[in-house]
Amino acid sequence: MDSVRAAYDEVYAYTIGRPGFILQHVVDAFAVQTANDESKPIGVVFGLVGLYLHVEKQFSGRQVQRVHMELGRRKREWPRLQVPEDRGSMTVADVLAASTGPKRDMAINNWCRSVWNAFSINRQTIISLLQEYHIT
């Protein structure tokens, strides 16, 4: 896990200041892909919301951040989502292996897609939650 965390830290630092605030996508993908029984439901929910909006609705990182802020305005109990055995074919290490610039940015998008697809069993729960907040 130390090497995974080191790769995440490096990708995180790389995305600071990148166009479209892609840092948000990195945070969401990592939170979801590394979720475990001790993860807080809010972290998994917000991560999957961000991945859904990015992958399926083409939201920018900034737009996802605004949705997270809207969801956080209301106190509530967040649903426990299903965490599959398979977390996606790509990891943050694959992103780090891509050369900086457009190739790494594309790797981030591919990583998000990979994680979202692995967790798609939760798709309807995420859509219903967003509909409850009138977010599409």
Which key features would you list for this structure?
7 helices; 136 residues; mainly alpha; 64% helix; single chain; 0% strand
Folded structure, characterized:
This protein is mainly alpha-helical and 136 residues long. It has one domain. 64% of the residues lie in helices and 0% in strands. The protein is built from seven helices and no strands. The chain is globular. The mean pLDDT is 96.
Topology:
Elements: H1 2-15, H2 23-33, H3 41-57, H4 61-72, H5 92-97, H6 102-118, H7 123-132
Tell me, briefly, the overall form. globular
Assess the beta-strand content as a share of residues: under 5%
SS-based class: mainly alpha
Number of helices: 7
Distance between the termini: 35 Å
Helical proportion, percent range: 55-70%
Q: Uncertain spans, ≥5 residues at pLDDT below 50?
A: none
Number of strands: 0
Total tally of structural domains: 1
Which value, in Å, is the CA radius of gyration? 14 Å
Order of helices and strands: HHHHHHH
Q: What average pLDDT do the residues reach?
A: 96
Q: Please describe the biggest sheet, giving its number of strands, its sense, and whether it closes into a barrel.
A: none
